[in-house]
C-alpha cells in the first residue's frame, strides 16, 4: 500500500510542459459556476494535482491581529495564526511567498492578492519545491485571491470566517462602505485601519486612483452608534458622487456640505479632509474641514504638520475653502487621522495628545517597511500606549508617494 501511495505521488508531480497553464485554465473555467462553499474543496483538489497537501486558506480578521482559517471540505482548518510572529503573517504583511522547512517537506505560504490588496494567505505543503513550483503557486494564489473576492460579493461565508467578535450594526455599515484597506501602485501606496474594528460607527475613509490622480478623503461623523454610521454613509456617498464628476476640492466640499445639510439639518455635521495627489509630480492639494492636520513623515521623522487655512465642518455651510498645496519628495509619507486617536484619555487623566502620537510614529517600524506594515504596527502600538481604551472611533490612513513612472508595465515583452 505504501508503495502504491509513493508511486501515485511521483506521478502527480511528474508534470509535462504546459501542465501549469492547463491547471490554471481548468480552475478558471470551473470557477465561473462554483458556489462559494465549493471554492475551498476545489482549491485543495487542484493543489493535490501538483503534489500539495495540508491546504489552508487563511483570511485576515477585522482587528488585523490574526489570520483565521476558512472552513471547507479538504481544507485543514487549524487554529488562527498570529500575524505578528508567524510565517503566514510575514507572507501576508510583506506580500511575498514564505517557505518553512519541515522534516517531510516544505510548508509554503503565499499571499492571496486582489490586485495589490492582501486578502489572506494560501498555505500548503510540498515534498520539495523548485522554481517551476514556485511560479505556478504564485499564479495559483493570485487566481484564488481573485476568486475569493469575486464570490464574496454574494455570500457571507468569507465575512463570517474573518469575525472573531460580535459586530455592531453601525460597524457592519461602515465596513460595507470601505474601499480595500490597502492599495499599491508603482508611484503611490495607501493603507488604512479603523478602531474599534467591531464597533466603529462615524469614522471612514475613501480613495480612488484616477488617471494619475490619487483622491483621498477621511471623515469623522458626529455622535456614536447607528446615527453616526448613517451620517458617514451620506458623507461618503456625496464625496464619491462629486469626485466622479471631476470637480475641484472646493466644489467637492460645497457639494458634501449641501448634501449633509439638506438631509440632517444644521445640528449634525462631519469633519473631513479631502485631498488630491498627482502621482507623477508629487503635487498635493488638500482642504481641511475641522479635522486634525495631517502629518508629513520624511525619513521616518515627522517633518511638519500640514496646517493651513481651513473651513467649517461639512454640514455647517462654511465659506468656500482655500485649497492648500505642497510638493512632496519621493519616499514622503502622509498620515491622516481622526481626533479619536489623540483625544483619548483614561478617566481623570490627560489626553493622549499629538506629541505622544509623533513620538510613537518616530519610534515605530523599521526601514523598508511597507505602508500596510507601518500603519498596522502604528495602530497596534498606539492601542497599547492607550491601554486598549477606545471610547471614540479612530482612523489612520497612511499614504506614500514614490515618484517615478509606470510606463514599464506596458512595455513590449513584459
TrEMBL record:
GO MF terms, alphabetically ordered: phosphatase activity
Identify the InterPro entries for this entry. Answer: Bact_Sigma-Reg, PPM-type-like_dom_sf, PPM-type_phosphatase-like_dom
Q: Could you read off the lineage of the organism from its UniProt record?
A: Bacteria, Bacillati, Actinomycetota, Actinomycetes, Streptosporangiales
Which regions form coiled coils? none
PPM-type phosphatase domain segment(s): 185-401
**What keywords were assigned to this record?**
Hydrolase
Q: What is this protein called?
A: Stage II sporulation protein E (SpoIIE)
Which Pfam families does the protein's record reference?
SpoIIE
Task: Note the superkingdom of the native organism.
Answer: Bacteria
Amino acid at each position: 500500500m505504501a508503495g502504491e501511495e509513493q508511486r501515485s505521488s511521483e506521478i502527480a508531480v511528474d508534470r509535462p510542459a504546459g501542465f501549469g497553464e492547463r491547471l490554471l485554465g481548468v480552475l478558471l473555467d470551473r470557477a465561473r459556476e462554483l458556489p462559494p462553499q465549493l471554492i475551498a474543496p476545489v482549491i485543495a483538489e487542484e493543489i493535490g494535482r501538483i503534489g500539495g497537501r495540508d491546504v489552508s486558506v487563511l483570511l485576515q480578521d477585522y482587528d488585523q491581529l490574526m489570520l483565521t482559517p476558512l472552513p471547507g471540505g479538504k481544507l485543514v482548518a487549524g487554529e488562527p495564526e498570529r500575524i505578528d510572529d508567524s510565517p503566514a503573517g510575514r507572507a501576508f504583511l510583506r506580500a511575498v511567498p514564505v517557505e518553512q522547512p519541515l522534516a517531510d517537506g516544505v510548508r509554503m505560504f503565499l499571499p492571496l492578492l486582489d490586485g495589490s490588496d492582501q486578502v489572506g494567505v494560501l498555505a500548503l505543503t510540498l515534498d520539495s519545491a523548485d522554481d517551476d513550483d514556485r511560479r505556478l503557486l504564485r499564479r495559483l494564489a493570485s487566481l484564488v485571491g481573485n476568486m475569493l473576492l469575486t464570490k464574496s460579493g454574494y455570500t457571507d461565508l468569507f465575512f463570517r470566517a474573518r469575525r472573531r467578535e460580535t459586530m455592531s450594526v453601525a460597524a457592519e455599515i461602515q465596513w460595507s462602505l470601505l474601499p480595500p484597506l490597502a492599495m499599491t501602485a508603482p508611484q503611490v501606496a495607501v493603507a488604512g485601519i479603523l478602531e474599534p474594528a467591531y464597533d466603529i460607527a462615524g469614522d471612514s475613509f475613501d480613495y480612488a486612483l484616477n488617471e494619475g490622480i490619487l483622491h483621498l478623503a477621511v471623515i469623522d461623523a458626529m455622535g456614536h452608534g447607528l446615527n453616526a454610521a448613517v451620517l458617514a454613509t451620506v458623507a461618503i456617498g456625496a464625496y464619491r458622487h462629486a469626485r466622479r464628476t471631476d470637480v475641484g476640492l472646493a466644489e467637492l466640499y460645497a457639494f458634501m456640505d449641501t448634501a449633509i445639510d439638506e438631509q440632517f439639518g444644521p445640528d449634525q455635521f462631519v469633519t473631513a479632509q479631502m485631498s488630491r495627489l498627482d502621482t507623477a509630480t508629487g503635487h498635493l492639494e488638500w482642504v481641511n474641514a475641522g479635522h486634525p492636520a495631517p502629518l508629513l513623515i520624511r525619513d521616518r521623522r515627522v517633518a511638519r504638520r500640514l496646517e493651513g487655512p481651513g473651513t467649517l465642518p461639512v454640514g455647517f455651510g462654511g465659506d468656500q475653502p482655500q485649497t492648500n498645496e505642497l510638493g512632496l519628495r519621493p519616499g514622503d509619507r502622509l498620515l491622516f487621522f481622526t481626533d479619536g486617536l489623540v483625544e483619548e484619555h483614561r478617566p481623570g487623566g490627560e489626553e493622549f495628545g499629538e506629541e505622544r502620537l509623533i513620538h510613537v510614529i518616530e519610534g515605530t517600524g523599521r526601514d523598508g517597511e511597507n505602508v500596510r506594515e507601518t500603519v498596522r504596527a502604528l495602530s497596534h502600538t498606539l492601542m497599547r500606549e492607550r491601554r486598549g481604551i477606545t471610547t471614540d472611533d479612530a482612523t489612520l490612513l497612511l499614504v506614500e508617494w514614490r515618484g517615478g513612472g509606470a510606463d514599464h508595465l506596458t512595455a513590449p515583452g513584459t
